[in-house]
């Protein structure tokens, strides 16, 4: 009998802003099990947040806050010299904003996943990680904290007693220390869809990923991130869902 596996499939959504439309949330949402919704700092606005929450609830998708740096121009992907206290404040602020819309629509906040540079910095900076984890815990200790697998952020959440999810990425390459290759470096993104899917299958079933240095790195995959803003995002979401199902991998949001 073949062993079965279960994994959450998450996507960053609600990234449109005013007259600027990004992604195809209506089509992506039925293909994933949890949504990380931008909270207005790096992307999104109040109207987009409300609309995305409604769409996710209609599809039965778990709702997550996706707080980032206050950097619309850089889409939250530029490092900022914030203190742990500032990171705490901006995290509380954004979780609160999205939580308001979720409550207004009759939903429940399921998780929090930092965005972009805030996420990557918290993966390796214990002080920043602890501030973000504390912000999540103090706003709602029942939600799941998503962080890069085996990172400082996940460890900070576990230390506080939060439920945590070790996250892996379908379309990103890895370094031998388990971190993601910086987007500023060559080959940070995996553009071949079949290669990206096979990387995910191996991470889920074998607990390993091949780093850019050619070394296998042990990795835990509770949730897999796909991006909704790429040129072929919908096509890739359909493909990864199909292949994972064929490989006896059940797609399901993490239980609270």
Structural notes for this entry:
It comes from Rufibacter tibetensis. InterPro entries: Glyco_hydro/deAcase_b/a-brl, LamB/YcsF/PxpA-like. Belongs to the LamB/PxpA family. Forms a complex composed of PxpA, PxpB and PxpC. The chain has 256 residues and is of the alpha/beta class. The chain has one domain (5-251): Glycoside hydrolase/deacetylase (TIM Barrel, Alpha-Beta Barrel). The chain has helices spanning 25-28, 46-59, 84-104, 116-124, 126-139, 152-160, 193-206, 233-246, and strands spanning 5-13, 34-38, 62-66, 109-112, 144-148, 163-169, 208-210, 216-218, 223-227, 249-251. A hairpin with a 5-residue loop joins strand 7 and strand 8. The longest helix is centred in the middle third of the chain and has 21 residues, at 84-104. It starts with a strand and ends in a 5-residue tail after the last strand. The relative contact order is 0.17.
What is the structure about, briefly put?
The protein is of the alpha/beta class and 256 residues long. Helices cover 39% and strands 19% of the residues. It has one domain: TIM Barrel, CATH 3.20.20.370.
Q: How are the SSEs placed, and which strands pair?
A:
Elements: E1 5-13, H1 25-28, E2 34-38, H2 46-59, E3 62-66, H3 84-104, E4 109-112, H4 116-124, H5 126-139, E5 144-148, H6 152-160, E6 163-169, H7 193-206, E7 208-210, E8 216-218, E9 223-227, H8 233-246, E10 249-251
Parallel strand pairs: 1-2, 1-9, 1-10, 2-3, 3-4, 4-5, 5-6, 6-9
Antiparallel strand pairs: 7-8
Enzyme class: hydrolase
Pfam families: LamB_YcsF
Function: Catalyzes the cleavage of 5-oxoproline to form L-glutamate coupled to the hydrolysis of ATP to ADP and inorganic phosphate.
């Amino acid at each position: 009998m073949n062993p079965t596996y279960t994994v959450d499939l998450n996507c960053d959504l609600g990234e449109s802003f005013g007259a600027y439309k990004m992604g195809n949330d209506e089509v992506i949402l039925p293909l994933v099990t949890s949504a990380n919704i931008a909270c207005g700092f790096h992307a999104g606005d109040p109207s987009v947040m409300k609309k995305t929450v409604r769409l996710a609830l209609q599809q039965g998708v778990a709702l997550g806050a996706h707080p980032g740096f206050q950097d619309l121009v850089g889409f939250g992907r530029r490092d900022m010299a914030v203190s742990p206290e500032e990171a705490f404040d901006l995290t509380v602020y954004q979780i609160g904003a999205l939580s308001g819309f979720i409550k207004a629509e009759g939903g429940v906040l399921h998780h929090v996943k930092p965005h972009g540079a805030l996420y990557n910095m918290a993966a390796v900076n214990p002080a920043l990680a602890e501030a973000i984890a504390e912000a999540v815990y103090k706003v709602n200790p029942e939600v799941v904290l998503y962080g890069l697998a085996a990172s400082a952020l996940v460890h900070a959440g576990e230390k506080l007693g939060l439920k945590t999810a070790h996250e892996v990425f379908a379309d990103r390459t890895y370094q031998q220390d388990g971190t993601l290759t910086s987007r500023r470096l060559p080959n940070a993104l995996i553009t071949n869809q079949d290669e990206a899917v096979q990387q995910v299958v191996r991470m889920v079933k074998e607990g390993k990923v091949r780093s850019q240095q050619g070394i296998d790195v042990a990795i835990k995959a509770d949730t897999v991130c796909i991006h909704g803003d790429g040129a072929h995002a919908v096509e890739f979401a359909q493909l990864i869902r199909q292949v994972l199902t064929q490989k006896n991998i059940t797609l399901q949001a993490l239980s609270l």
